[in-house]
Write a structure and sequence with these properties.
globular, alpha/beta, six-stranded mixed β-sheet
Length: 333
Amino acid sequence: MTRAAYFCTIVPSIENIWINDSENMNDRLPRIHFDLDALRSFVTGVDLGGFARAADRVGRSASAVSAQLKKLEDQIGAPILRKAGRGLELTPTGERFLGYARRLLALNDEAAIAVRGMSLSGSVRIGLSEDFGEHLLSRMLGDFARAHPQVAVEVQLARNMELVRLMNDGRLDLALAWETGSGLPHGESLGQFPLCWIGPSDHPLNTDARTQALPLVVFEAPCVMRSAATAALDAAGLSWRVAVTSMSLVGVWTAVGAGLGVTVRSRFGLPHNLAVRDDLPALPPVVLKLYRASERQSDAVNQLAYIVVDAIADLGRDKQGCATLQKSNISPH
């Protein structure tokens, strides 16, 4: 046999031995099985800004939650929290682990919803405030459609006043809307959210040179955010004028982006070409509610309601637009 032929015969054998040995080494590594309850306590504590509140939320004692966190750190082999003043903050390891914890919990919850809802059928009619259309539709309907392919979903994006009318007319099963004192029954508060002054981010605002009145871009009255804007300016003794009136949120964003005025909205759905202004009077928060057509509804409606509540909680964290998220009574069961 030539030296070249001998080399070609030996190399594949060496490669196979190395790969098999690597696989055997991986098999010998200790496997970590994280406790989902502990992960939920960890994520909840981070989201709520304290593990005493997390203990109340997950229905455990403070000492039990501390034991869960200690177990996670023992499994990881490094601290995930450290003292910061009177509280705790994430370590670099904890920051990295938090993302994985969220993904594990999300997959677990999606699997639970899918398995429980395989036999669901029928239809659900839901109305959403325009603020949540872009962000909620893709996630909410995507999750729901994968879990319940036999359920038909009808969605309406509309202003608050229109959602209230549709609920009163019996044309919606669920409505996600801002609280306006409409008196609709069967509404559950999802939390208080701050209102913000919003203006163009790339060029100055076109103010009225004669009166120095602040130009506003608003919905037609009645509108809870229009009322909040004018009341705050009046209380501060500042002049204002309605520069643009729009029937849609897209029209509001377009007019503000063109420099025609400022508006008042939550941070949800804020376009990239607009920015929050902090040089105008403080605004009160608004309450977001999920309304039901009746107290007792189908399993399909209840499952979609659960997904909506979960999506709002995630949006509040991502956008930092949530002042006080309240504990929901909605259950996936």
